[in-house]
C-alpha cells in the first residue's frame, strides 16, 4: 500500500484522474459545443460558460471525498440514499441509482455524436474513406485500445493529447489578437452582464451539461480515483485526510486544464463564427464550420493543422468517455443486482462493455447521423442530472465523521449551486415542453 503524500510537490506527482476526465470533457464540450454557443450568442453567455466550468468541480470533489473516505464505489454510495430501494441478489439500489441508469441511453446518443464528429474530421483528413467507414474505424480502435490497455496506459495516452491540445488552443486564441477579430475588453465585460438569450436556451443548457464536468464525468472521476489508489488508507484518519488533499489538488488540475482547453474555443466562436454568421452550421457539418475559426485567423494552410488536431482531441474524448462507461455500467449491473459478483466479474464486464458501447455508439450515429443533435440530447440530460449529484454530495458528506466533513462555506456553496441547478432543470423542461416565444 502506497503511503499518502503530505507535501504539495508530492501531491502533484499523484495527479492523474484529472487528466482522464479532461480528455473526456475537452472534446465534446470544448471543441464542439462551446464554440457553437459563441457562434450563436456572441460574447453574451461568457458568464454562463464560466459558471459551467467552475461550479461543478466542487460537487466532483465532495462526492470523491465520500468515496475515498469509505472506499465505496459511486453507486454503492448512492445506494445509501434515502427513499425506495430494490433488493436483487442481495444488492440494494436506491431509486436514484435506477434513475441514473436510465441516463445511459441519452449518454450513448452523445457518444454516437462524438463518433460522428471524429468521423467528419477523419473524412476531411483522408477523404478516400467515407464518414460512415470512419465511424466504424473510430469505434473499433476505441474498443481495441481499451481491450488491451490499463488505467496507466489510458492516463499516458490522454496526457499527451490534453497537453498538446491545451497549448495549441491558447496559441490560436492569442494569435487572434493581431487580426481584425481581436477581442476587446468591452466585449469581455459585456459577456459578464448575466444576460440570457432565450432563443438559444436548448444550446445553452446543453453546453452547461456538457462543458466542464458533467454528472457523467463526476461519476467516472470517482472510479479513476479508486483505480489511482486514493482510497488505500485502511481507515487511518490521517491517511484519509492526506488522500482527500491529493484528490483536491487533482480537482484543481481539472479546473485548470478544462478552463484553458475550453475558454479559447468559446472566444474563437464568439469572435469569428458569430461575425461570419455561421450558426447553425451549414448542412449540420460541425467540423467544417469550426475549421473556419482556424483558417480565418491563420490562413488556409491551417486546415491541415486543425483537422488532425480536431480528430485526435475528439477521439481522446471518445476513448476516455467509453473507458468511463466500462467502469460505470459494470458498477450499475453489479450494484443493482442485475449481475452476480464473483472474483473476476467486474474485470470481465469491463472488457465486454468496452465492445458494446462503441457498437451502440455507431448504431446511434447511423440511426441519426447528425452529431450536433446527438450531443444536444446528451448535454441536456447531463444538465438535468446535476441536481441529483449535488443532493448526493450534500447528503453523503453529512454522514462522514465531523473531522472529515467539508467546511461550512463549502456546504453553503453546494446549496447555492443546487438551487441554481434546480432552476436550470425547470428552465430545460419549460423550454422543451412549452418553449420560448
From TrEMBL:
Keyword Membrane: yes
Stretch forming the signal peptide: none
Keywords: Membrane, Transmembrane, Transmembrane helix
Transmembrane residue ranges: 12-31, 37-55, 95-118, 124-146, 158-183, 203-224, 251-273, 304-327, 348-367, 373-396, 408-434
Entry annotated with the keyword Membrane: yes
Protein's UniProt name: Divalent metal cation transporter
Biological source species: SAR86 cluster bacterium
Higher taxonomy: Bacteria, Pseudomonadati, Pseudomonadota, Gammaproteobacteria, SAR86 cluster
Amino acid at each position: 500500500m502506497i503511503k499518502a503524500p503530505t507535501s504539495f510537490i508530492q501531491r502533484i506527482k499523484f495527479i492523474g484522474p484529472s487528466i482522464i476526465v479532461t480528455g473526456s470533457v475537452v472534446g465534446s464540450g470544448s471543441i464542439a459545443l462551446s464554440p457553437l454557443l459563441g457562434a450563436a450568442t456572441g460574447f453574451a453567455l461568457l458568464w454562463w460558460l464560466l459558471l459551467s466550468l467552475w461550479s461543478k468541480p466542487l460537487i466532483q470533489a465532495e462526492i470523491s471525498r465520500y468515496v475515498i473516505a469509505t472506499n465505496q464505489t459511486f453507486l454503492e454510495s448512492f445506494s445509501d440514499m434515502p427513499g425506495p430501494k430494490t433488493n436483487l441478489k442481495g444488492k440494494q439500489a436506491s431509486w436514484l441509482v435506477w434513475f441514473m441508469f436510465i441516463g445511459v441511453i441519452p449518454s450513448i446518443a452523445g457518444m454516437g455524436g462524438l463518433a460522428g464528429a471524429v468521423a467528419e474530421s477523419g473524412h476531411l483528413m483522408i477523404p478516400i474513406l467515407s464518414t460512415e467507414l470512419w465511424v466504424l474505424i473510430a469505434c473499433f480502435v476505441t474498443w481495441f485500445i481499451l481491450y488491451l490497455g490499463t488505467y496507466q496506459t489510458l492516463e499516458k495516452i490522454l496526457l499527451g493529447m490534453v497537453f498538446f491540445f491545451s497549448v495549441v488552443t491558447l496559441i490560436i486564441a492569442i494569435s487572434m489578437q493581431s487580426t481584425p477579430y481581436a477581442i476587446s475588453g468591452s466585449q469581455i465585460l459585456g459577456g459578464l452582464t448575466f444576460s440570457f438569450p432565450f432563443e438559444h436556451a436548448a444550446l445553452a443548457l446543453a453546453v452547461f451539461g456538457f462543458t466542464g464536468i458533467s454528472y457523467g464525468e463526476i461519476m467516472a472521476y470517482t472510479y479513476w480515483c479508486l483505480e489511482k489508489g486514493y482510497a488505500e488508507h485502511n481507515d487511518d484518519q490521517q491517511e484519509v485526510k492526506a488522500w482527500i488533499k491529493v484528490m483536491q489538488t487533482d480537482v484543481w488540475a481539472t479546473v485548470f486544464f478544462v478552463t484553458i482547453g475550453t475558454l479559447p474555443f468559446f472566444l474563437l466562436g464568439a469572435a469569428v463564427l458569430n461575425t461570419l454568421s455561421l450558426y447553425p452550421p451549414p448542412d449540420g457539418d460541425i467540423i467544417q464550420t469550426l475549421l473556419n475559426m482556424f483558417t480565418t485567423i491563420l490562413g488556409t494552410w491551417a486546415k491541415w493543422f486543425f483537422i488532425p488536431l480536431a480528430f485526435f482531441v475528439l477521439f481522446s474524448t471518445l476513448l476516455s468517455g467509453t473507458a468511463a462507461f466500462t467502469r460505470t455500467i459494470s458498477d450499475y449491473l453489479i450494484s443493482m443486482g442485475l449481475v452476480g459478483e464473483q472474483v473476476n466479474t467486474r474485470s470481465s464486464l469491463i472488457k465486454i462493455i468496452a465492445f458494446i458501447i462503441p457498437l451502440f455508439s455507431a448504431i446511434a450515429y447511423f440511426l441519426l447521423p447528425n452529431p450536433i443533435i446527438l450531443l444536444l440530447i446528451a448535454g441536456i440530460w447531463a444538465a438535468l442530472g446535476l441536481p441529483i449529484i449535488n443532493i448526493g454530495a450534500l447528503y453523503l458528506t453529512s454522514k462522514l465523521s465531523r473531522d472529515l466533513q467539508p467546511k461550512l462555506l463549502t456546504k453553503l456553496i453546494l446549496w447555492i449551486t443546487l438551487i441554481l441547478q434546480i432552476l436550470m432543470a425547470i428552465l430545460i423542461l419549460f423550454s422543451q415542453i412549452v418553449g420560448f416565444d
